[in-house]
Give the backbone structure.
Amino acid sequence: MAGEAAAKVQVVGVIGAGQMGSGIAQLAAVAGIDVWLQDTDRAALDRAGDAISDSIRRLASKGQIPQSGISEALNRLRFTLELNDLRSADVVIEAIVESEDAKRKLFSELDKITKASCILASNTSSISITRLASQTQRPSQVIGMHFMNPPAIMKLVEIIRGTQTSDEVFATVKALAERFGKNIVCSRDFPGFIVNRILMPMINEAFYALYTGIATREDIDMGMKLGTNQPMGPLQLADFIGLDICLSAMKTLHGGLGGDRYSPCPLLIQYVDAGWLGKKRGRGVYSYTDQGNKPSPRM
Ligand SMILES: NC(=O)c1ccc[n+]([C@@H]2O[C@H](COP(=O)([O-])OP(=O)(O)OC[C@H]3O[C@@H](n4cnc5c(N)ncnc54)[C@H](O)[C@@H]3O)[C@@H](O)[C@H]2O)c1
């Protein structure tokens, strides 16, 4: 039944054409769904178009999708500055900045623009789905659909049910994520859900280790990478996620759960104040001097 509902999803709207939104739009297009990708920034849409095209071609060169799938997927994508273009969407997935005020305003607008049956999903890292749902007249159709970065590669989608999310909407979104080829975990709606409730304090602690001079950034990362068998260290991971996202998530954990242990590290705050937002801005804990994935050893 749920699989049938997901199969009936023909149009997906994605809002926010940054690192997450562009990856989510790509997943939907490759899965055979028509996609509207909306952003308020024309340059972000242009970058997303290039990134998706490169990524789909890379997947085809590795044999992960057929060559004929390249143009099929690209032809399913539409880029727009107009929110109104999402009115035909069966599911909207929001992936704008991690700001509760901005997301609340957007959900209120989406409620007016989208058709009555449309499901409104948020890719938020930590913000309450129940509070976003309260901005709409359809709280039973609002849900968290938390993709991991980069969405095209990572195998997990964390689904968060708000207090009023219906069983039917949960089942449809679960089946949609499976149609994207993802594994599912389900979390109740508490700050940070499962993954970021555990990951963000670890990243924050790595910042404290750097801030208090316990070790160099390289040794902190190498220690955690080789000592706990992770693909990269927490400081490099923070750069990949975006330090602004990490700071917002820590503020949400701190505000929602209380206690000193969730207090954002002053060094993390200072880097964000300096505009050192991570790889996407060319500078975070590390400096990124080219398009490569490796942090430069230079400050
Ligand atoms: N970066 C990660 O690793 C990661 C992982 C999982 C979830 N998330 C979540 O995904 C969301 C997006 O993160 P990101 O890393 O892609 O951010 P990003 O900064 O790369 O992109 C955000 C995009 O949203 C656009 N935007 C901002 N306000 C908008 C609005 N009102 N309407 C339309 N577009 C708007 C911006 O122009 C920008 O292009 C956040 O909620 C974040 O917490 C991020």
About this structure: Residues 11-188 form a domain with the Rossmann fold fold (CATH 3.40.50.720). The chain has a mean pLDDT of 94. The pocket of nicotinamide-adenine-dinucleotide is lined by residues 15-21, 38-41, 44, 95-98, 102, 106, 123-125, 146-147, 149, 241-242, 245, 280 (CB under 6 Å).
